[in-house]
Amino acid sequence: MLEKEKGISKETLFEALEVALVSAYKRNFHSTPSSAVRVSVDRETGEIKVFAQKRVVEEVENRQQEVELFEARVYDPRCQIGDLVEMDVTPKEFGRIAAQTAKQVVIQRIREAEREHIYETFSDRVEDIITGLVQRFEQRHVIIDLGKVEAVLPAEEQIPHERYRQGERIKTYIVEVKKTTKGPQVIVSRSHVGFLKRLFELEVPEIYDGIVEIKAVAREPGYRSKLAVWSRNADVDPVGACVGPKGTRVQAVSNELKGEKIDIIKWNEEPEIFIAGALSPAKVSEVELHSEERTARVIVPDNQLSLAIGKEGQNARLAARITGWKIDICSESQIAQERLSSLGLIDSPSPGNEPAAKESTENNTLESETAPNEAESENVEQETADLLREQAPEEASTGDGQST
């Protein structure tokens, strides 16, 4: 019954009983702690035998540890003086105290075995999604009931501004399982990038089956995320598979994340194409790479500059994280002015009037520089600017970006 209810093997229970009986024997039958005592429980009949090792001597001084030769030869006919002999010392009955001691030790071992079973169960589910009930709140932490164990959702692993109600059923991502003196402790998260990946695996069969692969994820929990996907099958559109019919799949994930916006872009092994796509929904005209420094200068139409940078630089930050490149964003008019300046057609901008809105993502911070002097811009001949734009490279592909 215990094996079925507690999920503990029969052998583990027998071993716990044997250890308990050794402890009870030493405590109640005048055996020293250092005595070599062994208890054997028959797996079929349940018969209990207690064995103790004693040294063979000519004259016994300590009956707990020594035995005379004639008595020892009952157990081992070939033994000699100085040998160790294992003898049956099973008491006729352990008594009430011995039985109580055995009971306590057995309960302790069962509890330990149960904790170990729970630990192994949940440690195998690290980086997986689990559903539980919000049980209570401890300071800023949320305690979630997972059935056999409680999980902790720390404040730093929560989605900003998300509110939880007692009794509410929520999905979380298992980050870590720790062993503590009070038993296993499960740490879960709702802000981890792995949570986003697992949610898409649940919603998109093509990802679960391995046809579509999530190559990279960048996330600012509660606000916006970017997901780069790739298909092993040329006939399967990875972006379309993640978006789903009428956007149902991506919308389901967004709803679970309390309205977090999600951009799904097509992964490409060509950095120029991947970077252009990562800045979706902005349109990109050109991408210039500097591989040694792993930086990229991205040129966008003037009306796409603020969209490419995003609110407080969010779009550019996420694009840098998901691609692994430091990205500087410039408008076409800025580039045109730089080229005119290099040809000597206009004066170079002063240090305080350099082209604006370069997005530096090395430290995920937006470097906003002063906008160009408007008076200088008005003095530029429109015909010359148009000629330079015609000579610029063709617009770079921006991938199949989708967002919700």
Written account of the structure:
The protein is 34% helix and 25% strand. Strands 5-6-7-9-8 form a five-stranded mixed barrel. Strands 1, 2, 3 and 4 form a four-stranded mixed beta sheet that branches. A four-stranded mixed beta sheet has the order 10-11-12-16, with helices on both faces. It has three domains: 2-122, N Utilization Substance Protein A, Chain:P, domain 4 (2-Layer Sandwich); 125-191, Nucleic acid-binding proteins (OB fold (Dihydrolipoamide Acetyltransferase, E2P), Beta Barrel); 270-404, K homology (KH) domain (GMP Synthetase, Chain A, domain 3, 2-Layer Sandwich), CATH 3.30.300. It is α+β, with helices and mostly antiparallel strands. It has helices spanning 2-6, 10-28, 69-72, 95-123, 193-203, 205-208, 238-243, 248-256, 271-278, 305-309, 314-323, 332-342, 374-379, 382-391, and strands at residues 37-41, 48-57, 66-68, 84-88, 129-138, 141-145, 150-153, 169-180, 183-189, 212-220, 224-231, 261-266, 286-290, 295-300, 326-331, 402-403. The chain contains 14 helices and 16 strands.
Key features?
alpha+beta, GMP Synthetase, Chain A, domain 3, OB fold (Dihydrolipoamide Acetyltransferase, E2P), 14 helices, four-stranded mixed beta sheet, 3 domains, N Utilization Substance Protein A, Chain:P, domain 4, 404 residues
User: What is the percentage of strand-forming residues?
Assistant: 25-35%
In total, how many domains does the architecture comprise?
Answer: 3
Number of helices: 14
The CATH topology name of the largest domain reads GMP Synthetase, Chain A, domain 3
Determine the CATH superfamily of the largest domain.
Answer: K homology (KH) domain
* Silhouette: elongated
Q: Total strand count, please? A: 16
Question: Distance N terminus to C terminus?
Answer: 52 Å
Major sheet: 5 strands, mixed, barrel
H/E element order: HHEEEHEHEEEEEHHEEHHEHEEHHEHHHE
Helical proportion?
A: 25-40%
- CATH architectural category of the largest domain: 2-Layer Sandwich
Class of the largest domain, according to the CATH hierarchy?
Alpha Beta
Summarize model confidence as the mean pLDDT: 81
Radius of gyration over C-alpha positions, nearest whole angstrom = 36 Å
The SS-based structural class is alpha+beta
Enumerate the strands of the largest sheet in spatial order, edge to edge or round the barrel. 5-6-7-9-8
Query: Which stretches are poorly predicted, pLDDT < 50 over at least 5 residues?
Result: 350-385, 387-400
